[in-house]
Write the structure tokens for this entry.
Amino acid sequence: MVPGRDQRALVKLSGEALMGPRSFGIDAATIDNLARQVARAVEEGIEVAVVVGGGNFWRGATVAETGMDRATADYAGMLATLMNALALQDALEKVGAVVRTQTALAMSQVAEPYIRRRAMRHLEKQRVVIFAAGTGNPYMPTDPAAALRAIEVDCEALLMAKNGVDGVYDADPAKVPTARRFDHLTYLEAIQLRLQVMDSTALSLCMENHLPIVVFDVRAPDGIYHALRGDAVGTIVSAHADAAPIRAR
């Protein structure tokens, strides 16, 4: 299908998605590949926002278990998301995309402050908008931040990029060879079956605001590009089990 220019989606990337084969940090070939996929989708008229995590550098909740104050650890994690956002911004610009990074923490030397109307204007102008620093609040992981930003800027879908998992299963496919993958799920089914779709707060936000979720494998060939186009990838979670994420108009 040919995407319509009024399509808008937010991609949630974990920090681990940027590591590639590395055990820490950012793999240059991996982030370049992700950037090319996003830029290709933008060239076809899709408006793209991105929320990126920071787990490849820092995990606030994990560090807090060692005795560090949890709020302080979470703020440090927000800085890690900004590092990833700037790296992704650079990779996108190198392949010709126009990018704006907005952050929930004041860092005017390197990024814009998050302003909803400005973000929406950037998207309308076919600029990729990267949201960094989560919501700017401790105790709040990046999944709820992704759901919140997607709802705020009127996205048609939230695309959850997973590492090596091509959707939602009824059991851990790494441990249960017979685990069954769902093509479609309702929000209530995901909650009742306690499936690991995303953070429960984020899932509730999406359900309350009727925002479809697409769970797909970021490592699949052109996975982000196909998810942004609305092609059949991964698992769709929505109000109705047969709903599609975004459609050409």
